[in-house]
Amino acid sequence: MYRALQQGEDDFLYIYFRMTEIFDNIRSIYHFSVPCEELLPYVEFFSESSAVATYTHTGNTSFTVKMFPSYTPTFWFNLGVAYELGVGKDRYHIPAGRDVLVVRNSTVERFNHPADHLFSVKFFPGALETILGVDQSGMTDRVVDLHEILPATLIRQVKAQRHFEQRMKVLQDFLLMQLQTKKKRDHYLHFVQQTIAEYEAGNLQYNVGEMCAQMFTTSKTISRYFDRVIGVTPKNYFSVVRARTALTAFVANRQLFIPDKFGYYDMSHFYREMVKFTGQRMEK
Q1: C-beta neighbour count of 259 within 10 angstroms
Q2: What pTM was estimated for this model as a whole?
Q3: Per-residue confidence band for 72, with pLDDT thresholds at 50, 70 and 90
Q4: pLDDT for residue 93
């Protein structure tokens, strides 16, 4: 636990309480809820900061939350004070009242005040295009103003609600309405979802050439589809999935972790790849 050290009457030097995805339970400071059944293929969850849980974990100090790449577009409605947002190598100031979208193609870190209050919705890759007709591939390494994506009246309505469940209902009803008007099957998204499922079913062992054989297509086609839906090559996306899965298994039980089960030659290979993925050295 790290606390704020007072330097003067109104001047504080903050020593951050740090939370890191996968290594720490970052969900512990939020309320969470899954969407309705019709939105389950597109929306991973809705969440909102919990003042009580945040105080329990961080006290009255500033803190950071670090999240690794996942290519899962996330809306953040700012119901509280200003905060800083690190996206890749850049850092952004998010004023009080400003709402943003981040695709999360690179490491994202939020630098928060104790009065941090966010309502968010996290989508699966490609879901924005299916529901809202928004192509996420052009939003990599950016912090996008949410007014570019959602109607201003909807944003005001969401933020005007008093409780998490009410905010969730307003946004969920809007997403359902948009989905119902776009019921036509998106061939690109369906193909990418099938390819990802096939990769996971193959224990994360297939390379792109083998995936092409599994999907009865060419490398040019599979690359074009992934670029359109997610904005990244299939090789890069699969490497992220593999790294996240392997790192989660390693953190859960180091003694039983077997690197070649996840396609790594040995532990040295795994450690090197995790440094590339997380930007930090692993404790052996």
Answers
A1: 18
A2: 0.75
A3: very high
A4: 93
